Structures
1.
Amino acid sequence: MDLTLILAGIIVFGVGAYVILDGFDLGVGILFPLIPDDAMRDTAINSIAPVWDGNETWLILGGAVLFAAFPVVYAVALSAFYIPIMLLLFALIFRGVAFEFRFKATRSKNWWSRAFTGGSTLAAFAQGLLLGGILEGVTTGPGPQGSGIALEFAGGSFDWLTPFSVITGLGVVGGYALLGATWLNMKTEDGLRDWSRAAARKALYVSLLALAVVSLYTPLKFDYIAERWFADMHWLSLSPVPLATAVVAFSLYRELKAGSHYPPFFYAIALFLFGYLGIGISLWPHILPPALTVHNAAAPEQSQVFVLVALSITLPMVLIYTVYAYWVFRGKVEAGAGYTH
């Protein structure tokens, strides 16, 4: 049994769960100032109130497993992406504070609404910057003698800031807006649902444009990605991924146009998952290109066993309470429903 692949799979699962679950509630925050009136905004924020903080558990889980199972990657990534990581963390903290204070405030309610939107948008954009930076690769060099670290970050503090990373940042903002709009379409009624359906169509265009730019740019820019997709007729065996993505995008557009309640949200999730799969195919076996692969960056076997034992206890608990929370708060959110905390 390859423990390294199991742990890498758990990280992939945790990051994917975070992107989907926290993605839609960040999307609600991104769309928040565009929602037509304050009553609708209250309904929108009530739709995510029971689950938003639990969604961020998956980010903590992914980071903890990365630290324990792939310490070299954790060390290099933290050095290479220190600024966008700190932007992400401060944005999530600021957004959480704004979320709670908005319900208590009277005269300053509008300010906390803006803070909620700003934190949500910055968090999404920072995640896109991280994605773009990872795809472009990280400059590494030999670690200090006697440190036990094979590689260390050898680039500049702003290597992650490129036109490509800005595009991926905007693409993630648009994608999360799509998830948020389809979530509101599923969870709300009447005027807010009609508005969110129209917003979802616009966000879909932005998401598809960003997806197309990334899909075209990366194989042209990076030889190892071009080789993965096109060398030795690989494109033939991998073609179901872009074809399925196109089918899902068309189905999402059709369901939005038809006024469906539930299918658009799950099609939006599928669109993200196919994009996630495409990134995984492009990067494999790298975990942080060009030097760090899944196997050469893994912790010793004893550490991997320890992490897996801990995960065998904690991961089922996280899954159970996540599923339970969504089951308890299933169904539509009624306009005017209160929030207590």
2.
Amino acid sequence: MSASKEKLAILGSGTMGHSIALCAAMAGFNVKAWGIDDEDIQRGKEGVGEKLNVLTTYEVVDSSETKSIKSRIHFTTSLKECVNEVSFIIEGIPENLSLKQKMFQELDVLCSPNVILASNTSGLSPTDIASLTSYPERTLVTHFWNPGHLIPLVEIIRGEHTSKETVDRTMELLKHMNKKPIVVKKDILGSIGNRLQYALFREAQYILEQGVASIEDIDKAVCYSIGRRLSVTGPFMTADMGGLDVFDSISSYLFPDLSKHEGSFNMMKNLVDEGNYGQKTGKGFYQWSQDQSKKMNEEREQQLIYWLKRDLVALKKDDFVETEN
């Protein structure tokens, strides 16, 4: 099936659900989005509206297009209606294995065997999610990164029984949605992105606990060095460009000294035990006033939109070259 002919349904209207629906609608798809109740749907609609307002402000989307983009998203509280006559479903309900297994059992009955069932889980196994279904070969994970409408990466994670056709169709669909999909060939804990992210976070906590630098300076060390570079060159390309002889030499003496700590470090454990979870509670490693939250959320959004605009320009150039050829 051609990617442009896929008929989409998104299950969940929360933070990730409505963002994924927006991605699809911006790419020209008509998409059905399921919400658990009217309140859930209203939040989803408001989220789509707010995100489109920001995207028009930064000229990612033309203001004349917002009405048609919104019209391509049909919200419903009926699961049966949502999945009727669709060819591809992305599930975005809460991160609970039993909930997802129950949902996929329902979908197994409601959908014909050629309908792909994808979960947006960030950590659960596609093999486990599909374990109670009759057609596990059509199930996989499509891990969109938050915020889903701005981050281009989507990790496609195969289950033990996922078919090649399922992976291929998913890859083509995500490309058609202007995403940068990658295939995780083995069903491993944390996939790729989270394993790399938490390896960095573990070392950051270790450096802090050793009294080497302040929280602020550790963050600056990332933002103003590797953070700038990694948006262009990943770890392997960075090593190639820096010289593998150099990286081999440094690895030989630095790796043994890196943290091998299992679990969270004391400072974060203490913060969590005290009910200080970060931005959502007003205190974490940093103090989070309303002004600080607004400022940082806007700064992050601006940077992500900057890169999104660059990606879209590059995509148009690639399309032009292909057309010319």
3.
Amino acid sequence: MSVQTEQLPERAHDVLAAITGRLEPILNTPITWILPAILFLLTFRLYPLLEAIRMSFTNMSLMNPENYQYVGLEAFQQVISSPSFWTMAKVTVIFVAISVILQIILGMILALAINYGVKKHLYGSVSTRVAVLSAWVIPGIVIGILWKIMLIETNYGIVNYFLVQSGFHVVSFLSDPQMALLSTIAANTWRGTAFSMIMLYAGLQQVPQHLYDAARVDGARALQRFRYVTLPQIKPVVFINLVLITIYTLNTFDMIMSLTGGGPGHATEVLALFMYFEGFNRFNLGQAAAVAVMMLLVNVVMTIIYMRLFIDEEEF
């Protein structure tokens, strides 16, 4: 009995070694290490996407989600025929186009300025990066609340206070339809510029210094160096940045919800809010899913357009 007891640890060690030997070829394959990420994406990304596409072909209602029928493209037809849909689409186009243009321009300016400051060892380069990054890490719902506080339409609002002190009248930032849309664009630009700055600044670090030195020898000025050296070198980064900020801006929901709630009227109600109201206020899950699918198609089309504009055919 004692002999068998003493042999148990050795047998357990042999069994463990045998199991480890059989598992070692599997554990050394790349698929083993990316399997958790794959499972996460399948569970929380792909499945909701496929479920939303399936729901878009139904007349599912939030009041009775178990009792529904497949109606083909009827949900899409109802969304498109809605009198408020095209208003939402127009607002979304204006919001996305201006926000993306401002984010890419301001992000590029900040990235160039910070890159210049770092190379010249100027004081304040680190603090500037921290200040810009703070806008990116703050949740969108908080940004909306902060901007709503700043744009209070009385003499005690932060922005209106300085306007009144400068001799101007109180501006209706959130109650006037046009000003509300401009205020929303400004808040979203402030939020998204930080991300563009991060991406473009990282791209600028990859530009070889000898290209700038050669351009200076050839007599190229600053704008010429930017056009003929910087932009061609960071074109892939600009492409990725444009794709991401377009997707983020098109899907913006939390910031607008806390800032204006889509008002006044429908002045700032973008498609993301329209989808939310359709599903949770009017309880039409099928039509809300149809709007989500439309937004997905718009994202795909915009990505293809960006690829045609920024990536050469031989790079596909």
